[in-house]
Amino acid sequence: MAATFDVTCPNCATPLKVPTALAGKKVKCKQCQQVLTVPAGPAPAKAVPVKPVEDQPAAYQSAAEKRFAQEAEDEADDKSDYIVIKESDAPRCPHCAKELDPPDSKICLNCGYNTLTRQRKESRKVYDPTFGDWFQHLGPAVFCFLLAAGLITGAVICWIDMPDWLDGSLLQSDEKNPTTLKKTWLVQPWCFSLWIMVMVLWVSYKLAKFSIKRFIYHFRPPERIKR
To answer: Does the predicted TM-score (pTM) go above 0.70?
Structure first.
């Protein structure tokens, strides 16, 4: 059994028994999931070597240290109060020290830190838009689009049928055109059609502009932030 020493979790004050081989490494408390660095403890007891340590090859010393550390980690059963964190060479976020996934990503998915601009974008938890949100957001745009199409259609009908609608009204004189044998107009019907067309085009422009902005630039409903 490897030598151990007591370490207290700084977050939940849970006492942990950590092998001395893990001194200087990071472990995670099972109670509160707090990551802490094991302080340098007393040096582990070593068996008396056959030869002085300085006389042993450097490769043998390194292999022995790795084997001792691995044995210490293996001896820690599942009932221990800590979890040994495996160190990796994967790129980490400079802000939260979490591994970047994928390694070449420019923005950390954990904290939103941008490694290029050196700025952190605040992350928010929002609700998924419901059918009611979509209907309330896109409904006015659909209505404005249909209204603009209806107004333009009505203006075209007025332009075509206005002479028939004003036939026999006070806008006609009793004199007849010698060519067409029809009564002459005091005010031409196209004057009314022109004014109607101008007003319809102005209103339709405003309605279509609102619809285009909603469908193209603001298609998604506003986010509802979770409290």
So the answer is: no
Find out whether 83 and 30 touch, Cβ atoms under 8 Å.
Answer: yes
Instruction: Compute the distance between CA of residue 204 and CA of residue 70 in angstroms, rounded to an integer.
Output: 76
pLDDT tens, position by position, 69-122:
566 555 554 556 666 666 566 788 887 778 887 778 888 877 778 888 888 777
**DSSP states of 1-23:** ---EEEEE-TTT--EEEEEGGGT
Please provide the DSSP assignment of 104-132 as one string: T-SB-TTT-EETTTTEEPPP--BPPP-HH
Within 8 A by CB and 6+ apart from 104, the residues are 91
- Nearest CA among 137, 127, 131 for reference residue 218: 137
- Using CA of residue 212, residue 215, residue 218, residue 224, what is the dihedral sign? positive
Helix (H) or strand (E) holding 74: helix 58-75
Amino acid at 32: C
Q: Whose CA is closest to 90, among 79, 77, 100?
A: 100
Whether 137 contacts 221, CB under 8 Å: yes
Amino acid at 91: P
